[in-house]
Amino acid sequence: MCAVGFTVVVIRLFTLQVVQHEQYAQFARDNQLQRERIPGPRGFMRDRYGNVVVDNALHFEVVMQWKSRDGVARNVRELATFIPIDTTKAMARFDAWTKRYGRIAFPLFPDADKFVISFVRENWMLFPSLRVESRLRRRYPDASVAAHVLGYVGEVTNEEIAGAREDLYVAGDFVGKAGLERQYEEELRGTPGQRAIEVTASGTALGEVPELSTASTPGSDVRLALDYHMQTYLDSLLARRPNPAAAVVLDVETGGIIAAASRPAYDPNAFAKGLSASLVADLLKDPSKPMFNRLSQARYAPASTFKIIVAYAILTHQLIDPGRVLVYCDGTHRFGNRIFRCWKEEGHGGMNLMSAIINSCDVYFYRAGEMMDVDVLAAAATSFGFDGKTGIDLPIEVSGNVPTRRYYDKREGKGRWTQGLMLNNAIGQGEYLATVLHVARMSAAVANGGWLVEPHFVEGAEAETVSPPARTHIDGLEGSTLAFLRRAMLGVVETPAGTAHWTRIPWLEVAGKTGTAQNPHGDDHSWYTAYAPAGKPEIALAILVENAGHGGEIAAPIARDFFAEYFRPNRRDGGVGPVLVPPPLASPAPARKPTATVVRTRPTASDTSTAARARGNASDTSTTARNHGNASDSSAAAHGNASDSSAAPVDSSARGDSL
User: Fold this and answer.
1) What is the DSSP string of 252-321?
2) Which of 1, 15, 153, 410 has its CA 20 to 30 A from that of 114?
3) What structural domains and CATH numbers belong to the chain?
4) Coil, strand, or helix at residue 528?
5) pLDDT tens digit string along 630-651?
């Protein structure tokens, strides 16, 4: 028996020491090693000229290796005799840290200054559980420039970890949460590495073991269509007023976004550092909604900018002879028992389609609305993409709204609505809704020969160049129709009667259209859209300033200043020259009397009879006509969501769109 037992022991020892030697040796090594995940650096974002817009900045933190809470508390108390530290808050942070991250080294000083770093390095024998580590933190432009475009990163949530593929994220990783950071997370995200650190039985780190460590791999850089200089300039222009605003500037041929902004904004650097609960609460409670992206999430009545699409419908369907004086504008238009008013109280006089666009005469478009089928206008707006999303490469975008016959039958009831709705629709009020992106690419389509482009920020990753998104041609936006719309938009700026003439630039021809959207929740919203140079278009823009008043007075001068800087001689050729400083806020020239652009100053008998016939056959609307002129969803911007506001109550005297 003894011999048998001895044999068993020998065999077991042989198995452990020889056969399974490597396995148990690895166990021993693993007990001496602590493995730490090294996050992969995120890729940079660069503008169209290669300038770095978003990168990663090096910062230092002091972390503590620990085995027990009592040991941490003892070290913190001892450290407090040398370094100012709130021991109560430090332990509260430790408890929260261990609850989420377990036994990972605790960052006692997440943003260590030079004094703390020097002390820890010089006194490592007194505090062997402490070590200084360098980490990369996302860094964004100052002063919230392009905040809603670039987005921000934040710590990954448990839900995001569970929803991703296995081992993609762990607690403590930072991921894109909004804007381009979120949209291009897969491209920007780096591949993590691993650091092997040898530790003693007491948990003291002895140093890294390089042969057992693996390096992390950076994510891909992405190249933007943005011109960073013009981006900062656009932000500065919008920041001159406290009003919420949104603006976008497109390359008319490709749809590449040269600059875009939503105000008010936030500082994405605060998210990269880690926001406190109180700061998050303040941002969410702020009535101005700085987290709300008005660029792609806010819809507004397009107001008089929409008259370009109404004119397109008139021309392509040959509804009205564009040279014919359709109305004599005396400041009012009667439809049934309703009075619809022009923005210009004294009226514009005789108006044909060209002069009506240049002067932004509401009375002309009221009359045109009477003569136009609801689905004809809806089809025209759909051709310009107002019924859907533009396809911009941002995580969240809302569609426009295009009311059709079916829409009104469902909302009002079949046979319970009248042609009177079309009067407000024809001046861009009523139920038509659009974002600044919709309006900007409308102007781009007129500028580029009728092509509907897809707005986008990213043009490639690393050295790879991505072809611009496919564009579609708008049926009928060519030939004489296209030429007419171009002349009309040019006249808005370049002729004395134009509603944006006071913002013209002597050395640069600009084609544009002003608009003022009625707002049931406050002051009117100011619209302006334009492209330049008019003779050989390069860029198109749209600007919306909430609660600011007339488009020709507020939004148009912002565009003027942007165009003047963008086309400043030698700017894009590397020439030396000062950045144009935005001029002081100014007011437009006093209202002008009708000029030669007005076709006729007195109505003829034929005009009078035409008007009489038009007003005489309005009996089908009678007292049921409703004013939908206030049915914009600007409340989406005001309240931080993209829901539509309800139609305004019945009003016996509709007020026309301004300028």
Assistant:
1) TTT-BEEEEEEES---HHHHHH---HHHHHHHHH-TT-TTS-TTTS--B--GGGGHHHHHHHHHHTT-S-
2) 153
3) 30-224 (3.90.1310.10), 228-654 (3.40.710.10)
4) strand
5) 333 333 333 333 334 333 322 3
